[in-house]
Amino acid sequence: MNRVAALTVSIILLSCPAVFGQDAMQYGVKHLTVLAEDQKVRVLRYAPHRGDKTPIHSHPSAVVYVLKGGRVKYTMPDGSTKTSELKTGDALIRPPVTHSDEALDDVEAILVEIKQ
Fold it and tell me: What is the pTM (predicted TM-score) of this model?
């Protein structure tokens, strides 16, 4: 596949997170729990220990509040990776995303997903 075609496919797939990802809750990972949910929002507690992984999944737009900072490695559907340093007390506004993740440190965050 040439570069233009590959870029086009990546843009289309990343703009439609449901194409690749699943709801992370379907995996039954112990480090992710639903705290509250209604038709408009879902509040999740993300509290992995170092080495915990979540298989590929999708999130709608979300607000993330970091309770305990640390590093998390994200892998995108195209195989690229990014390590993020989450800092205690940070509040982040995140666009929709499809990824898998691995905690490189013990971390804890609250995610408020905005359903559309």
Answer: 0.80
